[in-house]
Amino acid sequence: MLTAAALIGVGTGVITPLGFADLVASTPEERMGQTMGSAELGRELGDAGGPRLVAGFATVTTLTYGYAALAALIGVGPLLALATRRRAARN
Question: How many domains, the chain?
């Protein structure tokens, strides 16, 4: 368990700076503050909200359903983005 936690920490420590560096490279200068603020807010909400969501569902049902709720929420985000993009392309 400790090894898994260490590997998750190392993975997060490596990928987060790379992701933010890529975001900085692809963001226009005039939108840099807004973009980086939104990215950091999303990251912090995920760090704080994920465990609370899973724990809330697990308290009422079981841990399996807590993880299922998190998976459903993660899956819905890209689907909503895709639907919004398609709707914008039609207009």
Answer: 1
